[in-house]
Amino acid sequence: MPQGSSTPQKCPVIFTQEVDPVLIRVSLDDRIAYLTDFLGFTSHDAKIISRIAPLVNGLIPDLVDDMYAKLFEFDITKKVFMQRNQGFDGPLPSKLEDLTLDSAQIKFRKVFMKSWARRVLTSDYTSGKTWAYMDKVGIMHTGVSPFKHQRTMGIAPLNVPYRDCALMLGWVQQVLMRAVLKVPNDKLSPDDKAEAITAINKIIWIQNDLFSRHYINE
To answer: Which of 13, 75, 94, 153 is the most exposed place for a label (fewest CB within 10 A)?
Structure first.
């Protein structure tokens, strides 16, 4: 109690929502509602992401190139690309040392990654289709295909440890944040930069959860 004050301070009354752990495990809509509510992802966050998209879109090709260079720094992350990925029917090297950043499958994978990065910046976050896409991105790294046409055609999906998926999302998050900070102040005010970084942080963590839910049974 402050000195000289006779009025006791009261703790705020917090409304506690009921969350069904089974429902958020089996229902994507309920899970997204929980994630966005917990992280405070709002229409304002979606708007600021859309606003910065034209300002950082140009860095995506370099971001993807740098991302694969990072993956090639470690044998456990490089070995993943010795497996044939879904939709790729070109040549594969027989030895890890023969796999290069110019290999056909790496070029193929970069196309997907550029598409994902652009969708993060330009998606309609009021649409369930956006969250369904991000959820399928998580599924497709577990060795289980989320796409019916791939299963029908016998196309094998990726099989990547969750550890490496989470690390790569963290790396992408850093790059996007640095890109926002480098935007000139006359194009994006410091306050808007702070809001953009916060919004990106929320989206990356939601995407991270939409990976982990398919690896971790909880």
So the answer is: 13
What single-letter amino acid sits at 214?
Answer: H
Contacts of 190 (CB under 8 A, 6+ apart): none
DSSP code for 102 = T
DSSP state of 85: P
Q: By three-state DSSP, how is residue 192 classified?
A: helix
* Range in 10-19, 65-74, 107-116, 181-190 with the lowest mean pLDDT: 10-19
pLDDT for the residue numbered 86: 66
The answer to whether residue 18 sits within a structural domain is no
For residue 182, the domain's CATH number is: 1.10.490.10
Instruction: Catalogue the E-assigned strands of 13-108.
Output: none
Pull the structure tokens for residue 50. Answer: 């859309």
The answer to whether residues 110 and 68 touch, using CB atoms and an 8 Å cutoff, is yes
Print the domain residue range for 93. 42-212
Q: Quick check: is 26 in a domain?
A: no
Q: Report pLDDT digits (tens) over 37-90.
A: 999 999 999 999 999 999 999 999 999 999 999 999 999 999 988 877 767 777
Q: Are 173 and 131 in contact, with CB atoms under 8 Å apart?
A: no
- What is the pLDDT at residue 88? 76
**Which residues have CB under 8 Å from 28's CB, separation 6+?**
128, 131, 132, 135
Taking Cα atoms as reference points, which of 201, 193, 176 lies closest to residue 63? 176
Q: 106 lies in a domain?
A: yes
